[in-house]
Amino acid sequence: MGLFSTASKESQIGVDFLSDGVAVAQVLTGSKNPGSMVRAEFIEANGQEAQVEALRKWVRGHGLQKTPCVCLVAHDDCDVYQVEKPEVEESEMMQAVTWKIKDLISYDVGNAVVDSYPMPLSSKNSQQQVGVVSAHDTVIGSYVDSIRSSAMRLRTLDIHDLVRSNLQVVRQSADNSLALMTFGSPLYPIEQHININNGVTDFQFAQQSPGQRLFVIEDPVSYICNPATGRLRRHDSYGFNLVQPTAPGGSSVTVTTQLLGCSMTYAAGTSWRGGILSIEITIGDGSGENVNLLHQVHVENVP
């Protein structure tokens, strides 16, 4: 342990190998300002060899040899599953979860590197769930070799689904509450989400939710029923509006023709039952034989 410098003991490097370069960040981990960012950079490089060499030069240039490092495993290089927690001793957990996913992975289970993590209990499912991460051993070996070649000390491999929540482990301050909001970025263009992560003190929304539910919506979609033309059309890509437009615009496609009528009714929920949304359409070819299609959607009566 005496080989490590003071700076290495009090900071940690995060590394993410991307398609066109390497994202690196250094944060403090000591007692003073834990979690504070020291530097964050993106090093352009294509291909594994070029990226490892670029990372090695970056580490050498900042004198960060032997600094503890957390390396992210790319989405495409691992599989994440949610399964019921096996009722076995903790010492047998890895073998048990590996058995549960053996038919889900595309490679031989003997070549799988598997780990698991606990998941919060759900009010709708009394069975404890666990998250299971699996990757091919050659893939894991490649990540390990890449970090070792850069002269840093690999502390752990992590996945994108967990790394943001792990920041609270670094920012262990009883005086602060930590909330992270992450939007789609140039580094992760496919991710369009908001991630709220609680610190030591729980993050509080303005209103209480009896059902403890958070609703996140995507782009709006409208179905326009027009018996005059006999068509039901689906509209999307028109953005949000405070008032539902009668002609949404955007992109539209015809869902069905020969439409004779349609109706939509909503029965509000009460203290003893949820709300019911009923959607009914009538289709006919003009010969007098019609088909009525009815679909009902249960709506939870608490937010």
Concise synopsis of the structure shown:
A 5-stranded mixed sheet has the order 3-2-1-4-8. A 3-stranded antiparallel sheet has the order 5-7-6. The termini are far apart. It is α+β, with helices and mostly antiparallel strands and 303 residues long.
Notes on the structure:
This protein is an alpha+beta fold. The chain folds into 3 domains: 6-74 and 138-170, 2-Layer Sandwich (Nucleotidyltransferase, domain 5), CATH 3.30.420; 76-136, Dna Ligase, domain 1; 222-299, no CATH class. Helix content is 16%, strand content 34%. It has helices spanning 6-9, 48-61, 93-101, 137-149, 160-163, 167-170; strands at residues 11-18, 21-28, 37-44, 68-73, 79-84, 112-118, 129-136, 153-159, 222-226, 231-236, 251-256, 259-267, 275-284, 290-299. The strands form 4 sheets. Strands 3-2-1-4-8 form a 5-stranded mixed sheet. Strands 5-7-6 form a 3-stranded antiparallel sheet. A 3-stranded antiparallel sheet has the order 9-10-11, with no helix packed on it. β1 and β2 (21-28) form a beta hairpin. Residues 1-8 and 183-193 have low confidence and may be disordered.
Which SSEs are present, and which pair or pack?
Layout: H1 6-9, E1 11-18, E2 21-28, E3 37-44, H2 48-61, E4 68-73, E5 79-84, H3 93-101, E6 112-118, E7 129-136, H4 137-149, E8 153-159, H5 160-163, H6 167-170, E9 222-226, E10 231-236, E11 251-256, E12 259-267, E13 275-284, E14 290-299
Parallel strand pairs: 1-4, 4-8
Antiparallel strand pairs: 1-2, 2-3, 5-7, 6-7, 9-10, 10-11, 12-13, 13-14
